[in-house]
Design brief:
Largest sheet: 3 strands, antiparallel
CATH topology of the largest domain: de novo design (two linked rop proteins)
Helix content: over 70%
CATH class of the largest domain: Mainly Alpha
Number of helices: 7
Number of strands: 3
Order of helices and strands: HHEHHHEEHH
Shape: elongated
Length: 247
């Protein structure tokens, strides 16, 4: 598997991230992606094959499996990882757009750069990064709710009672390796919750920092008004002196 896209994504986003963003990247790409690729797929590899019910009625096992597992954990986590990482691509695309725009400006303005501090999140890039944080937290929260809603919790029982047609009566169905699957499910749920917390912390950090910077007045503004005030007072005194001299 080619991981160059992953390296470009991590390097492109981490340059503009805070410590909360870097923790989010570590949790997603080290814990969630690696666990998903290396371990979780193997645990759920026998999910359908080893799902057994104590009946020989044709179609009963298939119907019961579809009822209890309308979408597998692996498929749901794969969709979750795709949706969660897509907002980071927005930031990478915006950064590349800024770099190309700055390069074009530099070639036409004798080496001068359009952005005084290219590494700072200002203007549209600040809003893009904030929207990406909101989307990442929202996607993670939505998929946690979907998982909880579909399986009525994050637990995975060993025994399932099924009375769906064409089963002749209430049959017992057994899930393969339920304890191992439960551990991986809780691990993915906790890691998703940590990612949501990191996104919320980073959002509050950016908003508070933006609020402080907007309230902070540039000292040159004070100097400008101070000098204008002195000049105005001097003008008034000169006018008074001239008027007094002529009187």
């Amino acid at each position: 598997m080619n991981w160059n896209w992953l390296q470009a994504l991590i390097s492109g986003v981490s340059n503009y991230s805070t410590v909360f963003g870097r923790v989010w990247l570590s949790v997603v790409f080290i814990f969630r992606v690696m666990v998903f690729v290396v371990a979780a797929q193997r645990v759920w590899a026998d999910e359908r094959k080893d799902f057994e019910c104590n009946t020989r009625q044709p179609g009963c096992t298939n119907v019961c499996y579809d009822h209890f597992f309308p979408i597998s954990h692996i498929s749901l986590w794969a969709l979750q990882l795709i949706f969660v990482t897509c907002p980071s691509l927005m930031v990478v695309a915006h950064v590349k757009y800024r770099e190309m725009k700055d390069l074009k400006y530099t070639t036409t303005h004798e080496g001068k750069h359009m952005y005084a501090r290219p590494g700072k999140k200002r203007g549209g890039l600040w809003w893009t990064y904030l929207v990406s944080l909101i989307l990442k937290a929202s996607f993670d929260a939505a998929f946690l709710y979907i998982l909880y809603y579909i399986y009525e919790g994050f637990d995975l029982p060993r025994l399932l009672k099924c009375s769906m047609d064409p089963c002749p009566n209430i049959v017992d169905c057994y899930v393969s390796r339920p304890t191992e699957k439960k551990i991986f499910t809780l691990f993915m749920v906790v890691s998703s919750a940590v990612c949501i917390l990191m996104c919320i912390c980073e959002m509050f950090y950016f908003i508070c920092k933006k609020s402080r910077s907007s309230l902070r007045v540039d000292p040159t503004v004070y100097l400008f008004y101070y000098e204008n005030n002195i000049l105005q007072k001097l003008k008034e005194k000169v006018v008074l002196l001239i008027a007094y001299a002529f009187n």
